[in-house]
Design brief:
Elements lengths: L4 H5 L15 H10 L12 H11 L5 E4 L6 E4 L16 E7 L4 H10 L4 E4 L2 E4 L2 E5 L6 H12 L4 E5 L3 H11 L5 E5 L4 H11 L3 E3 L4 H13 L5 E4 L5 H16 L10 E4 H4 L4 H13 L4 E4 L4 H14 L12 E5 L7 E6 L2 H14 L3 E6 L6 H6 L5 H10 L2 H4 L4 E4 L7 H7 L4 E4 L7 H8 L2
Parallel strand pairs: 3-6, 3-12, 6-7, 7-8, 8-9, 9-10, 10-11, 11-12, 14-15, 14-16, 16-17
Antiparallel strand pairs: 1-2, 4-5, 13-15
Helix pairs in contact: 5-6, 6-7, 11-12, 13-18, 15-17
């Protein structure tokens, strides 16, 4: 059971030194209890006290690091079931499946599609994070190992799904530098698989015939010293997989059952084989509840755009507005001679307006000013968007030194700022753009006639 603030306070120095950034030791203890600050913020806690508190204040779901280098990812660490209770910590990740049980052409098609799905949305890279390499029962071992070699060369994290310890060892030897997840531990083979996971220092995926068997197997692995695990929710049916995912999360977060306090893997490719539409629907469902790694047969743009958009909406802090980084964003090959268009850093505004700018085909230097993540009218009403703030932005980003063109478009909804901006930015031709983004295309084309 997690400690309360008073329990933590009893173990603090009680000096109110403020070295932790909080005004009192009690305030610090309350923040630690809420998960708002780490224990390490207090430089005066003894190692003994830190050790005593660390386990008690740790999230009910363990934080697991998988992969290596640029492909290292964080899973787990969740403390709530719903994002309105508190920010969700580690976004779920998507994997595509290749298998020794599939024909070569199908596998090659999956590999070929991976590099093509890679784009940016609101400053976040959207791409397939994992390749799930499946060793199908009764298939050719040599083919599987060749798939592992190919997958290891794709600059993605790997999940090696293999229940045969001998084959798994050969696969790990090939892919060990990337610290793959070894998935395939069961009640029958967990001792051998655990030894392999420890030997290669990788996360072990565990499954069971039902939740009781899964729980017992995890408890056995924990007793053997392995707490670097991920739980496979199974593929018996969609209903059972969903029920398992929900019960595992509830058991850890609500009931404090740390044996189930691990991230989960959902093999959607096996739940809906050959049905891309159903796989996309299931991926959306398990993005919400509660898959950490979602395995699909493949990932197309038609699937990715709604899925990644949904994920980004779910795994953002509901108490903080979604923002883009202030700066200069050239659109349609704009250079220093292109006109400028300015708006706020609210992510939705940025994407709506930038899309229309791109559609116009006119080169534009899109200027994003810091407005606290608010929309245009909200920022203006709150004093976050003003002639002074725009002038400050121009100075900080050296706009006049980087751009020769002196035409600046401002949002139509703050046309009232035109005169003030002209005073703050002498020499600039301030043009009021349309009120609605959809009108920008015609507006820019008319300007260029």
């Amino acid at each position: 059971m997690a400690l309360k603030g008073l329990d933590i306070f009893k173990l603090t120095p009680k000096t109110n030194c403020k070295d932790c950034g909080s005004p009192t030791c009690m305030a610090f203890a309350m923040k630690v209890a809420q998960g708002a600050v780490p224990l390490e913020k207090c430089p005066h806690l003894s190692d003994e006290v830190k050790a005593q508190l660390s386990e008690a204040t740790a999230p009910p779901m363990k934080t697991i690091k998988v992969g290596a280098g640029n492909n290292e990812h964080t899973l787990g660490g969740e403390t709530v079931l719903f994002r309105h209770e508190k920010t969700l910590v580690s976004k779920n990740l998507y994997a595509v499946k290749v298998s020794s049980g599939m024909d070569d052409a199908a596998n090659e098609a999956v590999f070929a599609a991976i590099p093509g799905l890679d784009y940016e949305r609101i400053g976040e890279r959207m791409y397939v994070e994992f390749i799930y390499v499946d060793y199908a029962a009764g298939s050719d071992k040599g083919k599987y190992l060749e798939l592992v070699k190919k997958a290891a060369s794709m600059d993605r994290a790997l999940v090696l799904n293999c229940a045969d310890p001998a084959v798994a060892k050969e696969a790990l030897e090939i892919a060990k530098e990337g610290k793959p997840i070894l998935n395939g531990a069961t009640a029958a083979n967990c001792d051998e698989m655990n030894a392999l996971a420890k030997e290669y220092g990788v996360t072990l995926g565990v499954s069971g015939a039902d939740l009781n068997e899964l729980h017992d197997t995890v408890a056995k692995l924990e007793a053997a010293g392995n707490k670097n695990l991920i739980l496979d929710v199974g593929t018996a049916s969609i209903k059972e997989a969903f029920g398992n995912a929900v019960q595992i999360r509830r058991a850890s977060v609500k009931d404090g059952d740390r044996t189930f306090g691990y991230p989960s893997l959902v093999n959607i490719a096996e739940l809906a084989p050959g049905d891309d539409t159903l796989q996309a629907a299931l991926a959306a469902m398990f993005t919400l509840k509660y898959g950490s790694i979602l395995v699909m047969s493949g990932m197309s743009y038609a699937q990715a755009l709604p899925l990644y958009g949904l994920r980004q909406n779910i795994y953002t802090d509901p108490q903080k507005p979604m923002k883009v980084e202030p700066g200069i964003y050239p659109v349609n090959g704009a250079d220093e001679n292109a006109i400028c268009a300015l708006t706020v850093d609210f992510a939705l505004t940025y994407f709506v307006v930038s899309g229309e700018l791109e559609r116009s085909g006119v080169p534009v230097n899109f200027l994003i000013t810091d407005a606290g993540g608010y929309s245009v009218l909200t920022a203006w009403a709150a004093g976050k968007l003003s002639a002074s703030s725009i002038a400050k932005f121009f100075q900080e980003k050296d706009i006049e030194g980087k751009i020769k063109n002196r035409t600046l478009l401002i949002p139509g909804k703050v046309a009232v700022l035109k005169g003030e901006i002209e005073e703050k930015l002498p020499g600039w031709n301030i043009v009021v753009a349309p009120n609605e983004a959809i009108q920008i295309v015609k507006f820019l084309k008319d300007m260029n006639k």
